[in-house]
Design goal:
The chain is mainly alpha-helical and 547 residues long. The chain folds into 2 domains: 30-384, Rossmann fold, CATH 3.40.50; 408-537, no CATH class. Helices cover 54% and strands 4% of the residues. The protein has 22 helices and 5 strands. The protein has a 5-stranded parallel β-sheet, with helices on both faces. The termini are far apart.
Length: 547
Amino acid sequence: MTPPKDQNPVPKQNPVPAAPVAHLLALAPLDVWLRMLVGTRIHPRYWIRLFGIGFTSLVGTLWSLPERIIFAICWKLFKKNPEQLDHPPGVLVIVGYYRSGTTHAHNLIACDPEAVTPRWYQALLGQGCWLSWAVTRFLLVPFLGASRPQDGVGFGPMWPAEDDFALAGWGACSTLPGRLILPSRWSKWSKWNTLETCTDAERARWRRTLAGFAWKVTRRHPQKMLVLKTPSHGAHISELVEIFGDHARFLHVSRDPNKVIESNMRMHDDLASHLLQQPLDPSTLRDRIVTEYRDIEHATIAQSQSLDEGRIAFITHEALIADPLGQLATAYQTLGLEHSAAHQNAITQYLHDLGAYQRPLHTAIDLGTPTPTESETIAQLRALHPSKPTPERVDLPPAPYPARTFRPLLGLSSAIIAAVAWGLLWIGVIWIIKQINPDIKPRLDQLVWIGGSAVGLAAVHFAGAGSKRLGYIAAGLTLLVFVSISFPITVINWNFAAESTTSDFLYHNSKGALHGILAPSSIAFAVLGMLTAWRHASSTGPRAPGT
């Protein structure tokens, strides 16, 4: 019997327990996760991973709760239409199916000093990103690598992000649960691609969530153009016009369909560590990708017909790679936007910092078997976006700013100074608290996380660039301060041998200090502090666009 469409056709589970992972939806509140998981059986192999996600989700729940309450009240009481957002500076939405080159376009446009776009610290905790933006950005540093696992593109809390992650983690109104969590429920969550089968209530929830998130993103820069990017937005053009009105403009990025399909297969393989179920077999996955790709692109063309001239521009990924400045200038002109000299300089600097982008070497994977209709679908996709001659590669102008000089000794000395200053400050805080209330005996191990960030940032800032060696040194300094500080903290709080001889004084307090160091919570914060220091000081890639 043929399995139902929503069933995972892989018959046998891998017996090896799935390891915990820094899941891209890990901070989504518990109620959102319950909505995603209800009615779904999770195999015991994934329970450890699920437990880890549950813990981080609990953190996200508690962290975002005050903002959720305040925002819900204010949005309902003071917003006449919570499903719309009037943003006069304009809204530019980048559309195009996954792996079409939309991320590269997003990063280039994010260089515009007159644009504001969601950052990963906002998208991963959309419900709590406003009141806690600095802390959330800080919390994510140890868990987010310097590059995306699927393609090696720059990544981190301050890098431009897809608003789709906020839609998933806020209102569970995204395709991501079927894509990144529960492949057996792909069809259930695919309704958010086009919204055609969504109920009126679901459409309203989707509009409310996106409008609310966009409002949060623009509050710090209300005078700047908002830039959004999500692959499925190509099928949401009509809905986005309903939300943003005449302020909405669109930039569509296309790429050779064969490359898009192959790249999507590799992306799903690279992101399999996020799943809570066995991955789909390659042929089933390929069929779903092709179908989804076709439906979204057809919807893009159909819905764009109702747009006035100058509301949508089309570019190809290949052309954008060959001539980024020229292609964006043309697109901006089509859309009636100003492609300023400051934007061009920022793009030029970013691309020079990026250097010769080397995609990671791919291992051989099963790309699945094309269906009999795939060639017909590819022909349809090529007809939707007739190929144009790729322009000759244009050399970039010289970088407007001199290249950063790596000064390791200055970075090292700065890291040492930051470590000493942080250690003294830590002791000072403990001493002050003790003077105020002698009954309180704090260790404040949480400060090692903050201190690790200070050491790492000082190292990379004054060195001009990061390196793995500098990262290891920053992590080592963080650990050294953590261990060294434990003895004076023990003396200030407890002094286990206040009436003893010097020898006994050292022995007993050293023993107490060691006990404090080895406490599970102390170890956890020490690890987070060291990871944070290492992440900052070892950063060798370009700065996030627009920062």
